[in-house]
Amino acid sequence: MQYRDLGKTGIKVSEVSFGAWAIGGDWGTVRDDDSLKSIQHAIDHGVNFFDTADVYGGGHSEELLGKATKGLEDEVFIATKFCRQGDIHNPNTYSYESVRAYCEASLKRLNRDAIDLYQIHCPATDILRSGQVFDVLDRLQAEGKIRNYGVSVETVEEGLICLEHPNVKTLQVIFNIFRQKPLNELFPKAYENGVGILARVPLASGLLTGKYTEDHTFEESDHRNFNENGEAFNVGETFAGLGFQNGVKLAEQVKWIANERPSMASAALRWILDQKEVSCVIPGFKNTKQIDSNLQALSTKPFTNEEKERLITFYLENVQHLIRGPY
């Protein structure tokens, strides 16, 4: 395992870390036993960072991480998120009283004294512009309830707004071969400011594994079934905003990335890790097989400059105009 600085937090995180949305819910059937075994399996292989949120399974994801990492508080770092239990457009959701209540509830579920990284969970753009929520987070940090804070954003514009606040230590962004926009302005500015980047939806909801055909159907409880067009939350969180049919066709066009590499998935993750601004990539997981598959990215051959240029051209000519929703 290789480790990178998580911005200016003072924390070094495993290049391949993991997101814990799937073990909470919205990704089809999952068993707690499998989730706990998978977390331990990842830790045994050097993974020291997990990302979750208070709305993943109504807090169940946090509870599982709290159970799995008990006694490892100084070795395994946890990021969680808040605000989506309330109305993300209502300023009261971001008041000191509300955020402190969200924070204390997460601490209880995580069974920890402090949260390593507390993130605003894709808030309304106007909330970020007002900046008052950052004062609230400064206060919680001074109280010792959180060690660092960052923001999970939907758009490059939101990320740039966050960079105006000096105590924002990380940005979590949708970033993958199908979503390259952050490369142009956001990543360089974040890197210059010492702000860490967490790359989420790295496999475009599974499209970049190359395993799906256009006739595939997803379980009723899987967000890939009920949020393809943004019915439940931002459309970009599902299939990178492309829609399933478009996504499958586009994935076929980049299967060449697996040439001389273990798999398409490991190649897609390797491409993300080839960007120096990225602190870590956080694919999801439901079992140890998926953990092992994603960890293959660590030993996957880096992309050549020619391959990188080919993927940029592919994105500009074939993908960008198909993305729906703000990004």
Automatic annotation (TrEMBL):
User: Pfam families recorded for this chain?
Assistant: Aldo_ket_red
Q: Which domain of life is it from?
A: Bacteria
- According to the entry, every stretch annotated as the NADP-dependent oxidoreductase domain falls at 16-310
Q: What is this protein called?
A: Aldo/keto reductase
Which species is listed as the source?
Lederbergia graminis
* Organism lineage: Bacteria, Bacillati, Bacillota, Bacilli, Bacillales
